[in-house]
Amino acid sequence: MKHTQHPKPPGLPPRRSNPFWPRATGLSIPTFAVLGLLAAFPAPARAQPPVPGSIYQRLERAAPAERAERIVAASLAGLGNAASFSARVRQLARVGDTVLKGGGRYLQSGLGEEQRFRFESLLSADTEEFEVLEVCDGIFSWSFRRLAAAPPTVERVDIRSVRERLEALGVRDQACVSPYLGGVQRTLALVREWFRFESVSAAAIDEVPVWSIEGRWNRDRLAAHLPAQAKAIVDGEEVAASDLPEGVPWGVRLSISQRELFPFRIEWLAIPGKRPVAERPAEVVAVLELYDVRIGEPVDATAFVYKPAIEGLSDTTSVVVQQLGPLRP
Questions:
Q1: Cys bridge to 267: 6, 124, 225, 253, which one at CB 3.0-4.6 A?
Q2: Which residues lie across from 144 on neighbouring strands?
Q3: Is 64 a domain residue?
Q4: Is residue 70 assigned to a domain?
Q5: What is the DSSP letter of 36?
Q6: Helix 64-81 and helix 54-61, axial crossing angle in degrees, nearest 10
């Protein structure tokens, strides 16, 4: 099957005086590929009726939150079960008065233990560049980071150790480890871990029917992240976007194609600026968009070959394995 999409480039919102730069929160939004991206892509322009078929009829009968959760879960499962796909990545950011533009590509091939992926991202401003490369070659998962003037880093994770740990935890499908390692699957898996999806509506991106799905924080996760407010959060008190520290997203919006359930766009919403800040509607502060998507086409196997220099290499297998936990069903 072949499927290609060409969303139109987004426009930039007006410049803001206060920069928004997410800090290391454990949320890991989820790689630098989407950290601090300060561009609001335009919302889908017009709604489309649901694509007919039994799965959509069942979704129509479900409650909104249940429908939203099912669609996101099916999208993540679909990524793992795709024999191959490739996509280009587009990113646009504004940090204070600095405009960051960039993008890259994502490649994935194989199923189960044979699955490989490669994620490339390069953002640039006037005088700085921020580069990320994630490669899974089936034996190791590699992560390269070059962030502005900081020395570049290369980290390596032994995939066999990850599978063994998942098996010990009782994870049924430990053969496919991509959601625990990196790439698009890890991005969507973390979004599901940190957010609960509340609503879904039919929309469109360049006349392609999508589900527009809104999510808010998983209260248990948010309470753990904000211990000073933990009791109030667990007790069900409403948390406004202005109550969250700068750098912590308040919500997420997904645009998932109605036909293939492919995640074309992930947007994080918050109120940017130094705290305290006046309450106002949350705006898009980080975006990851996939376009020119091709599903089922052959992918060059050499894309998954990565041989970095030994100097500066760090093996982080023990740290990653120690932090592993089953993804929510």
A1: 253
A2: 133, 154
A3: yes
A4: yes
A5: T
A6: 150
